[in-house]
Structure formats: C-alpha cells, structure tokens
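Lay summary

Proteins are chains of building blocks that fold into shapes. Our project writes down both the chain and a compact code for its shape. Here are two examples, one after the other.
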Amino acid sequence: MAEIRKTRKSQEAVRNESLFPDLLGGGQIYILRYDYIYGTLSVSVNGILLREGTDADYIEIGNRKIQFNIIMDRNDQVVCNYIKPL
C-alpha cells in the first residue's frame, strides 16, 4: 500500500506505490495512481533503481504513465516514489 505524506500545502509525497501494467499497453506501460510533479518520480524494479530517458530504462508518458524500455516479466515488482500536487 502506498504511503502518502504531506510535504507542503500544495504537495504530498507518495512512497512505495506498487504499479501494475496497463492491460492495453502490452505489459510495458504502467499507470500511477495519481498525477505526479515532473522530475520527482523514481522507479525501481525488484529493488533496483532505474534511470529515466529514451536511451535508459523507462520514459515518462504524460503525468500518470511510464513505459519501460526494458523487457518486463509479469512477476517483476515495480515500485515508485513521487510528489503529487493536491
């Protein structure tokens, strides 16, 4: 279960949110529960922190989705932390 903490009057931190694949995304697109503030997202798979970018592990799509550039297994545990606006 994701932990949410208030950081400022207009922001909250979301920690340890487990992500699941978008069924229409072929197993490579994952949807976050909340919108996030760009630049605050960190993603780990099976405890390994990943890098964002087209030539790295994943890319951000909008403000609620990520697409992995690496092959995901259905048993992979995807966890993220980010700041969300109120």
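And here is the second example, written the same way.
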Amino acid sequence: MATMTLENVPDDLYRRLQAAAARNRRSLDKEAIFSLERALAEETMSPAALLARVLQCDSDCFAYDCEFAALAEELDVPLVTSDARLLAAFPHRTASPESLAP
C-alpha cells in the first residue's frame, strides 16, 4: 500500500475529521481513507444509476421512473405506485397500494 502525508490541512477540516473518526470508532488514518473513498466513489456510476439506464432501455418508462425502480431493486423493497406503466414494466418490483391494503 502507498503512504501519503497531508500538509496544510485546515484546522476546521482536521477537527471535523477527528470528530468523525471518534464518532465512527476509527483511527484518524482510517477515517481519512474512508472519507476519500466515499468522495471519490461519486466519480463512478453507482450500481443504481447503471441499473436505471439498463431498465430505461428495456421499458418505455421515463428515466426517473427507472431510477425509482432501480433503487427499489437495490434496496430489495417493493416500489409502491399507482402508475399503470410502472406496474406493467416492472411487475416483479412494483406493487399497487390496493395490493398492500389489509
């Protein structure tokens, strides 16, 4: 593994990193690595965004509807909707409110 030294870290940023490390019960180094990984992960497409693109290609739904379906897929929960188009396009992932009523 590579070693990195940071210089001229603003005091406020250093205090926030220390507080996050304490809150998450991590060393300062591990908290810095975690924070960097999380910040840089935003540069790549998330699995939900990729799945949304795939779902959009396979249905006539709008992109934002596909994102909701992708998020439901990622969280493994039903997408509750009254939208007939969504219910038809994603029957394995959607449920109507009436179908969930007791």
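What can we say about the second shape? The mean pLDDT is 85.
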